[in-house]
Design brief:
alpha+beta; Alpha-Beta Plaits
Length: 204
């Protein structure tokens, strides 16, 4: 579980499928009112408070983005709530309605991996080239190289092998395609894997 602060009232949490399976949660469970999902949410909010100081009191808007290969992205936005009245209460005395969640779900089939080192991206591209011919967009975002692949451009049967290579050289990222479009710098608009292989040689 990775937690990133996006603003004073907003955080992004990245859950891998391992995070979910360890807690007995299926992807489809994430937008259901069931105890284990509530427990997971409580755990996420506790960790968010301890890691980035995010106070989850008040109404919360929760957006869940399902990414097929990597896991799930949960964006939590705190509403404007007069929580000073609860300031003197201990956590176990907090009224239950303080977790007032509005959950929306978005599915994204995009496969998105980040590379800190461009050389690692070159290596990955050369390994992937026999599998991928015309696919991939490359972004630069927050000092990392982000390779974005759309499943319809790929042979579905080769997804596991593709993801294994990407995971070896890069890391799954919680950055959604929408965030890349808005805040990232587009470096290669199409056929990124092929373009990288054409212009950069592997280190021997």
């Amino acid at each position: 579980m990775k937690i990133e602060r996006l603003g004073q009232d907003k955080i992004r949490i990245f859950l891998t499928f391992d995070d979910l399976s360890e807690r007995g949660i299926q992807k489809e469970d994430m937008w259901q009112e069931i105890p284990k999902v509530h427990d997971l949410f409580t755990e996420m909010m506790d960790q968010a408070y301890s890691e980035v100081g995010f106070d989850a009191s008040g109404p919360l808007a929760v957006e869940v983005f399902a990414l097929p290969a990597q896991g799930m992205v949960v964006i939590v936005t705190r509403g404007k709530y007069e929580n000073h009245q609860f300031g003197s209460l201990h956590e176990d005395e907090m009224p239950e309605e303080i977790y007032e969640m509005e959950v929306t779900l978005e599915l994204s089939d995009a496969i998105v991996y980040a590379f800190s080192d461009f050389e690692a991206l070159i290596e990955a591209a050369h390994v992937l080239q026999p599998t991928i011919t015309d696919a991939g967009r490359l972004f630069n975002y927050k000092g990392k190289w982000i390779l974005h692949l759309e499943p319809e451009d790929l042979d579905e049967g080769k997804h596991p092998a593709l993801i294994a290579v990407l995971a070896e050289y890069g890391e799954a990222t919680s950055v959604t395609p929408a965030v890349l479009e808005e805040y990232g710098k587009l470096v290669m608009a199409e056929n990124a894997v092929r373009v990288i292989c054409e212009h950069f040689k592997r280190q021997s």
